[in-house]
Amino acid sequence: MYASEKANLYLLARNEERLSLIKNDLMVRGASAVYTHPFDANDFESHKALMEEAFTTLGKVDVVLVAHGSLPIQEECNADSLKTITEMNTNGVSVVSILTHIANLMELQKSGNITVITSVAGDRGRQSNYVYGAAKGMVSTFLQGLSQRLSKSGVHVLDIKPGFVDTPMTVEFDKGALWAKPEKVAEIIKKRIEKKSNFSYAPAFWFFIMTIIKSVPRTIFDKVKL
Ligand SMILES: NC(=O)c1ccc[n+]([C@@H]2O[C@H](COP(=O)([O-])OP(=O)(O)OC[C@H]3O[C@@H](n4cnc5c(N)ncnc54)[C@H](OP(=O)(O)O)[C@@H]3O)[C@@H](O)[C@H]2O)c1
Description:
four-stranded parallel sheet, 8 helices, binds NADP nicotinamide-adenine-dinucleotide phosphate, alpha/beta
């Protein structure tokens, strides 16, 4: 969508071959320029230089979208604390790390939007995915504070909480009525950025589902298999 509006784009991801393919595709779709750089979310020491290089290359950054993540098998995390730590790093600590640098750069710029994809899983810990959920919940709480801090500098912070989305991450799952297509979630994200929202479920009906799930008392919730 941004490419068709002739945007300058800067993509960071770990698969250089796919980065190159996506770059070519975005140029065909109308992007004015597409820069790419390899990025491993868990190489924390590289983050500062990478973020600074992206901001220097683009000059002014209107929108940052943080969208990396991994969905671990909870049982594997239960059996191995190193697996748990890696997943917490990918879904939580790495996001906090890059946001720390991006926030400082945006604060200097005094404008822009920082959008992060978290998850409904961060709203309540469930036995089936609480490592992933805890990492996402940490990022959402971090974003609340960051939003308050950066509002003084004219920078907007947006927390997007999708429900089930049909992407490579969920390829093994059976799909049903609650599932959304990534194109639909992308539309919601773009609209929310334009409206300068701070927070949104995606799609919006997850607000009602999560309000109910969050209100179930712990004594009852512990007996439910979710
Ligand atoms: N799909 C859902 O139902 C759902 C629901 C709620 C929230 N989300 C969140 O939505 C965001 C996008 O996920 P998706 O559904 O689009 O799944 P996806 O297609 O698997 O995208 C996740 C991306 O994260 C990248 N990534 C993982 N670990 C990385 C690392 N260490 N360094 C750099 N990149 C790394 C992956 O790179 P590779 O391609 O190289 O593996 C992949 O491109 C994630 O934050 C996810 O948690 C998804």
